[in-house]
Amino acid sequence: MKTIKLLLPVVALLLITSCVSVRVVSDYDKEANFTSYKTFAFYKTGIDLVEISDLDKKRILRAIEKEMLAKGFVKSDNPDLLVNIQTKANKRININNNAYFGYGWGFRPWFWGGGNQFNSVSTSTEGVLYIDLIDTKQKELIWQGRGAGSLNVNRSMEKKDARVQEFVAEIMKEYPPKKDTK
């Protein structure tokens, strides 16, 4: 019974942290008139500099295009906005030293029961995706969304597509920004 009481908070914590899938922040130019932007195109020069596979670039760009079209934008050769992306990957190594020293066992609980010690090492990769929207007339960044979350590089193609779509959708929820009413 004591074990169940001890494990319950740990399981609850794992469930809560697993629900936080993509952490998103955004920033924008307060002077920009976001209602005036109707068309977009991808900033090929900037996107070509991103150091990820071409297949992952295509996944990201398809997801962004889907979100922009859903927001009413039209893809154009003479756009109001240029869309650029940037990516980062941070590898994390987690080392846990788990030591347990307990009381005796069996019918003589007052004797020393020995102990157990083990180490566990795990690695994880956190990916960060930046989506930049650039005003083509002013040639200035007007909005930037950033999403960060864990990546599993051994996923199937369908899972990669779904994860990229999730990242982009969560970031693009922040656009257009809700202006402060203060």
Automatic annotation (TrEMBL):
Recorded hits in Gene3D superfamilies, A to Z, give: 3.30.160.670
Query: What is this organism's lineage?
Result: Bacteria, Pseudomonadati, Bacteroidota, Flavobacteriia, Flavobacteriales
What is the designated name of this protein?
A: DUF4136 domain-containing protein
Q: Which range is the signal sequence, renumbered to this chain?
A: 1-21
- Domain DUF4136: where? 24-177
Cited InterPro entries: DUF4136
Record keywords: Signal
